[in-house]
Amino acid sequence: MTILTTPGERANPARTVPDTPGRGTPGGLAGAIASEWTKLFSVRASYLCLLAGLAITGVFTYYYASIARINEHPVQPVGNAAASSAVLVQFAVVVLATVAVTSEYSTGSVRVSLLSVPRRHVIQAAKALVAAVVAFVAGTTFAVVGTAVAWVAFDGRASFEAGPSLLQVLAIGLYQALVAVLTVGVAFATRHPAGALSVLVTLLWALPSVLLGLGGPALADVNDHLPHGSGDHLMRLGAEAPYTPATAVLIVAAWAATAHLIGLCVLRRRDA
């Protein structure tokens, strides 16, 4: 409501008219998303994470394809190089999504955010959606670049089909988006970058490495139900998998949803 006055006249609360529709910033989830988008790209860390992910993709996929060519591995889909690089590239997404949450706790600006968006689930959902969209676009971009680099390095020891390659690029982007949502939930639960990164490095890399290193069908089955284990089955083409790609998506999504709910419970109980 806008108060109407004339020079020298006190504001009369009774003389009000509604604000013009469309004026000001949007509210609710749309406003929160717009705010989170602005905040994410107002810091250098976001750009550095994306550039780091691009660089890691280029180096890893070239190395992967070169080793396959030198050792005369069987011909495989060229996109498998980009899928394999996700074991490292995912941490560029992890750091980006972690910074989106924990930077506000470290500076105290989270209080302003929570005052602006009192509904806790809305602000968490906005951060998760923005991080997921950025991660999906970045993941698909990394996959396209990695596929192109690997095609050169494979030098004939890889196959390429437009349809399956497109699906593989989208699968890589989807996995990175789910990792971003998982990260936002963990970051809200821990509220500290070191704590969040410790949990995520353990879950996405250290634990799978230990399970696969020890070997055995039982441990392999456990790894198949961890986020990166199921994500790896989703992203690779021509590899044997214990379940369908749809099941792989559901497993990673379940991990992301669980982390999201835990983070929301912590946010509601401990607030800022």
TrEMBL record:
Keyword vocabulary terms for this entry: Membrane, Transmembrane, Transmembrane helix
Superkingdom as given in the UniProt entry: Bacteria
Transmembrane segments: 45-65, 85-107, 128-154, 166-189, 196-220, 243-267
Residue ranges of the region described as Disordered: 1-25
Name of the featured protein: ABC transporter
